[in-house]
Write a structure and sequence with these properties.
alpha/beta, Lipocalin, Rossmann fold, 3 domains, 8-stranded mixed β-sheet, 11 helices, 28% helix, globular, disordered N terminus
Length: 456
């Protein structure tokens, strides 16, 4: 394990979503569908390849169901002498395997990672998700378009409204880091769908939307920062303000993780919202959040104190280097050189891949942004909730929010025992558990949110 592989554990295998495709299976060669599970530092990700043979050779698509990514087209597919090789250049993915008839025995590479991946023709079993609502819904559900006039992009979303009776309040849902669809789909779970379903059944209108560049939304996420995503959230709030049936209704924000940074950012800048709910919201500078996240997850995965101290020291030095050179046009080269000296035996391609994980617009801003000044300027009613098993945004952030909120009479903080970053009841809090837990979002936490909104 290299020193810098812990930097972006939650950003592994970030790929775009395309329509799902299935090809017919034949047993005469590697054509057909293949299924396997990647184990990346304790996090399991399902991977599927759909290989097709045509007149001009082989083609293939890849699915990563846990990341809601389907139909990613392979750049090249070669099969010769029982050896299959697929590449997806845009995601820096390469899979090389020996075809044995009923198995592919191979290695999956992405960036600096090289992981064994053996695959079979046995399809994945459907995960049990008992909370996931099914159509027909007992409320109105409308597909909508949200115009962000600041960045000239259009976001696609879903507005759910109570079927009858008064609308008690309306909220937008703001997702965490990574490019999420409107359900905030992750590891086979749809937490925003579950949350919106419960709230709407109980009289709260909910607007959830695809992040820019995800699903049916426009925009380029590769150059977007947290501040850019904040303009999307403001556009969503404005959309609700313009709905005639919501003219007399209080409108708020529910932000999870990075969304919990965006909500106070918006609230501190003007009268855009009447209230907000912060779910696992960071209250520390981004670099400190990542350092704590690294240590907690690596420690929970069995890494020793000496190695943890080494990783933290290296990461701190690199983050400081980025802060001191953020406006330097040679930043990528500076960081690359730092990594090269830190891991001198590593290949140049891996070193540059590591540098790209931290030298990009979103990560640079996240590392350097301190949410505390915005929190100190907030005066609207706010509810902040965190789980004691959260290893990505530790529960200690709750106290910081409570002690620094602008109007301390309007902030309520709630620590929930035994739930992780996704608000699932969890044994360890490790990301490796997310997909294995049947619960999508603790109902008791949703009830806390609803009861608080009802008292506004």
């Amino acid at each position: 394990m290299k020193k810098l592989l812990l930097i972006a554990i939650t950003n592994l295998l970030i790929i775009n979503s395309f329509p799902f495709k299935i090809f017919a299976q034949e047993a005469t060669g590697p054509e057909g569908s293949w299924y396997g599970i990647l184990n990346i530092q304790g996090v399991e990700l399902k991977i599927a390849f759909h290989v097709k043979k045509g007149e001009s050779g082989y083609t293939a698509d890849m699915d990563s169901p846990d990341q809601s990514a389907f139909g990613i087209t392979a750049t090249s597919v070669n099969y010769e002498n029982s050896m299959l090789r697929l590449t997806i250049a845009g995601a820096m993915i390469e899979y090389t395997a020996v075809y044995t008839g009923d198995r592919l025995m191979g290695t999956f590479k992405q960036g600096g990672l090289s992981i064994p991946l053996n695959m079979s023709r046995r399809a994945f079993e459907s995960s049990k998700r008992p909370q996931e609502p099914k159509k027909p819904f007992p409320y109105k559900s409308e597909d909508v378009l949200i115009v962000n006039r600041v960045d000239s992009i259009v976001l696609a979303g879903t507005l759910t409204l109570p079927q009858s009776g008064p609308v008690k309040a309306a909220v937008i849902l703001i997702s965490g880091s990574g490019i999420q669809n409107r359900d905030s789909e992750i590891m086979g779970h749809k937490p925003f769908l579950v949350l919106s379903d419960y709230l709407t059944k109980n009289g709260v209108a909910v607007l959830r939307y695809d992040d820019r560049g995800a699903g049916m939304s426009g925009g380029n996420p590769a150059i977007a920062t947290t501040r850019d995503f904040a303009t999307d959230a403001r556009a969503a709030l404005q959309y609700l303000r313009e709905r005639e049936e919501l003219a007399m209704v209080k409108i708020g924000m529910v932000g999870h993780s990075e969304g919990g940074i965006i909500a106070p950012m918006i609230a501190s800048e003007g009268n855009y919202a009447d209230f907000m709910v912060l779910l696992a919201a960071p209250a520390m500078k981004g670099s400190e959040i990542i350092l704590r996240q690294q240590r907690l997850i690596a420690s929970g995965s069995g890494l020793g104190e000496q190695e943890l101290d080494e990783y933290e020291k290296t990461s701190r030095e690199m983050f400081l280097l980025i802060e001191n050179n953020r406006d330097n046009p040679m930043l990528f080269e500076i960081v690359t050189d730092f990594i090269r000296k830190s891991v001198p035996d590593e290949s140049e391609s891996v070193i540059k891949s590591q540098a790209r994980t931290v030298v990009n617009p979103w990560m640079i801003e996240f590392l350097l942004y301190d949410p505390l000044p915005a929190i100190q300027m907030c005066n609207i009613p706010a509810l902040a909730i965190n789980g004691t098993k959260d290893l990505q945004v530790p529960v200690e952030n709750l106290e910081i929010i409570g002690n620094n909120y602008g109007n301390k009479e309007k902030i309520k903080i709630v620590g929930v025992d035994g739930v992780n970053h996704l608000f699932q009841h969890s044994s360890t809090g490790l990301p490796s558990e997310y997909s294995k837990i049947e619960e999508t979002f603790s109902e008791s936490v949703i009830k806390i949110i609803l009861e608080w909104i009802n008292k506004l």
